[in-house]
Give the backbone structure.
Amino acid sequence: MNILRSEFLKLISVRTTWLLLGAMILIEGTVAGLLAGLGEKKDLRPANVPDLLIGTPLSILFVFTLGALISTNEFRHGTANSTFLITPKRERVIAAKLVVGFVVGLVAALEYVAVNAGLGLSILSSRDVTVNSDQAVDIYVGVGIGFILICLFGVALGAVVRNQVAAIVGGLALFLALRGTLTLFIGDEVGRYFPAESLLGLQGNPKGKALLLDQVDGGLVLAGYCLLLTVAGMIVTRKREIT
Amino acid sequence: MPELTVERLVKRYGQTLAVDDLSFAVDSGVVTGFLGPNGSGKSTTMRALLGLVQPTSGSALVLGKPFSELTHPVRTVGASLDAKDVHPGRSGRSHLRTLAAAAGLPSSRVDEVLDMTELTPAQDRRVKGYSMGMRQRLALAAALLGDPRILMLDEPANGLDPQGMRWLRDILRALAAEGRAVLISSHVLSEVEQTVDEVVVIGAGRLVMQGSLADLVTRDQRPSLVRSPRASELRELLESAGASVSNDGRPDTLLVQDATMEQIGTLAAEHGIALFELTRSVTTLEDRFLELTGEGGHVR
């Protein structure tokens, strides 16, 4: 509990946390409002609504970045020395950081739903655009869980790759570059298990792609990646020389 | 039992031998200076004691145990390895609160160490606005959070002005007087000279000497300087008496070893030789250190 309290204090005591969470609200609100409010109503088909509900990938990137910062800030600013002196059992530190990552992801999820539903859906409703409520709930739950898993992904990746730039760029490469690039050569059958594709599946397959995992399987695969990275992060951190 | 024990410590990073069969011990109640040029292995040794790096062979123990086996690490050892080890976006108080929370210490302890290090007026300022002296104080405050019996500070005087160094000297001596073991590393010898009681000198990862500061600063090993108008005559007399004599570059000046000043003065008086100068040069810590470790600067 002591370590957990310390990790939360570390998170809330720096401006970057609030800036990133605030930027998410701004971007989500702007995009949701613009998408829902602009454009001809006749062009807004039911198939487009999920896109509105899922919002912008930028939020995913922000949440991932926050997760990576939770881990990599220790090495970026040298606080790893004092952190591991106070808590020589380093796995406890990683575990506490993961709990913090979970909470950050949850806050991001609630923030997203509040803005997207509060602004986007209400604008659509005012324009008499029908939204399937069951579909909306499925998507919101999928996107929300996605935020949590992506934040955990960032924390775990940051524990493996202590360099802040490498962790963030590496994570972005995993999600942005792998996506679409390798699947051209490997095909959708295998490609749907990649991190970005499994996230799309978890979100509810917004583009209606034929070969994506369903939400449950997408979530499990993404959680599997988080678990693998967590195990790797704990092993690496325990053995790592703090120089 | 010594508070800190390093025994045949070897640490290798790839091809580089950072610490080479180093052994020494640190006791409580004294300030021990851990001295060596940059790159001599001081920081590596401290990190090995703190469990941050693993020895290649040998041991580095705290109260006879590896750091990871200490029951209450924060209350046993307080350490500062680099005054820059703090998130610049946090205030001094926030930084200490995160450490105190992890250690299970109350917020009131944060107030105490801020007061001890005279940082209370600046506690709510972001660390990026701190001077180097303030950062050093914050690092010491962090090390003191657990009220530890052992303090290990790596280059604590770096960047301090004379006033700051005096403050550091006073507080370290006070902490040692309370019975704590205080180990400070430095490559800047003038600041250490007035602070430490014991010294451990290393060079190229190896122990060069360990002992009291007085042992390091010797008087009798340096030659006497003698200036006389009849220097060459005096030289012959001294060499006949068994002394080693050399010139210091000036025709009327001799450097004499293996003879006391009393012997030199008596010999000159017996032969009616006037002496214009007869002095014993005092070795400073700087001279002795350079002598022991080679010319100053980086070892590697």
